[in-house]
């Protein structure tokens, strides 16, 4: 069998992942039609390409269905509570940098910190009869972060995209999402809490600690890792 390398099948991470490997003499390419999720690996023996959603790569690594995978630190930490038992970080790739942050409406003049948010949340509940809503797709990381900060009077609402729009759409009062240039936050009149940084993320190459390997795959892995360290 061959060593399975999972990479994002589209979007901002795919092309940069391909060129990162290219610079190391490993050519990843998509094969078939534009829409077909098939690919190949040239320049090294015994490695096959698996094209996956960036969000599914953590789970595939943890289940041992792929041996290596490229995805963001944020997605690994969010989806795998025991990530360091299941995966090992091989190399940060130097792109896909983004910060997971908490942001509130820029017009909330007296809310700049988590303590302020906590106070605003209590007032909000008294006034509106329901808890202040924070929209996010990072449920686990946000809950853990807010618990550690002593903020409890809120509710998470699920948002799988266009999260910054939820405040304008009145489905949430605050958001927790990834920011890179900050443009989406600015365009949606949101500001980051001064102590609202939850996690710094970047695209990273991970190795599964649990994927079974035969002797051929083991030797392919050794060669692969050696190539990357050159
Ligand atoms: N604006 C950005 N700049 C840089 N990196 C970003 C940005 N937004 C998201 N990312 C990173 O890109 C990675 C993939 O995010 P994305 O939201 O595209 O994943 P996904 O929703 O699982 O993808 P898919 O739509 O294929 O399921 C994440 O690790 C994330 O941190
Ligand atoms: O700080 P910026 O450079 O503006 O980037 C941040 C935005 O990029 C991502 O969204 P994406 O483009 O993936 O769209 P989505 O929200 O629909 O997932 C992220 O969820 C932010 O919305």
From TrEMBL:
InterPro entries: ATP_PRibTrfase_cat, ATP_PRibTrfase_HisG. Pathway: Amino-acid biosynthesis; L-histidine biosynthesis; L-histidine from 5-phospho-alpha-D-ribose 1-diphosphate: step 1/9. Pfam families: HisG. GO terms for molecular function: ATP phosphoribosyltransferase activity. The keyword Amino-acid biosynthesis applies. Keywords: Amino-acid biosynthesis, Glycosyltransferase, Histidine biosynthesis, Transferase. It is an enzyme of class 2 (transferase). SUPFAM superfamilies: Periplasmic binding protein-like II. Residues 54-229 form the ATP phosphoribosyltransferase catalytic domain. It catalyses: 1-(5-phospho-beta-D-ribosyl)-ATP + diphosphate = 5-phospho-alpha-D-ribose 1-diphosphate + ATP. Its EC number is 2.4.2.17. It comes from the Bacteria. PANTHER family: ATP PHOSPHORIBOSYLTRANSFERASE, ATP PHOSPHORIBOSYLTRANSFERASE ATP-PRTASE. Catalyzes the condensation of ATP and 5-phosphoribose 1-diphosphate to form N'-(5'-phosphoribosyl)-ATP (PR-ATP). Has a crucial role in the pathway because the rate of histidine biosynthesis seems to be controlled primarily by regulation of HisG enzymatic activity. This is ATP phosphoribosyltransferase. It comes from Ruegeria aquimaris. The lineage of its organism: Bacteria, Pseudomonadati, Pseudomonadota, Alphaproteobacteria, Rhodobacterales.
């Amino acid at each position: 069998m061959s060593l399975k390398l999972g990479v994002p099948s589209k979007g901002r991470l795919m092309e940069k992942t391909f060129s990162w490997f290219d610079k190391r003499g490993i050519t990843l390419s998509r094969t078939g039609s534009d829409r077909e999720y098939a690919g190949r690996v040239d320049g090294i023996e015994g490695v096959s390409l698996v094209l996956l959603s960036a969000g599914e790569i953590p789970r595939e690594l943890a289940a041992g269905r792929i041996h290596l995978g490229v995805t963001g630190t944020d997605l690994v930490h969010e989806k795998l509570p025991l990530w360091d038992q299941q995966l090992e970080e091989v190399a940060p790739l130097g792109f896909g940098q983004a910060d997971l942050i908490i942001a509130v409406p820029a017009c909330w003049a007296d809310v700049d910190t988590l303590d302020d948010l906590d106070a605003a949340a209590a007032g909000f509940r008294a006034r509106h009869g329901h808890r202040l809503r924070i929209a996010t797709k990072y449920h686990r990381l946000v809950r853990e972060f807010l618990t550690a900060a002593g903020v409890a009077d809120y509710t998470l609402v699920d948002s799988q995209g266009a999260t910054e729009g939820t405040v304008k759409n009145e489905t949430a009062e605050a958001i927790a999402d990834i920011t890179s240039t900050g443009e989406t936050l600015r365009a949606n009149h949101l500001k980051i809490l001064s102590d609202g940084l939850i996690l710094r993320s970047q695209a990273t190459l991970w190795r599964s600690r649990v994927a079974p390997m035969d002797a051929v795959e083991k030797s392919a892995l050794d060669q692969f890792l050696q190539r990357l360290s050159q």
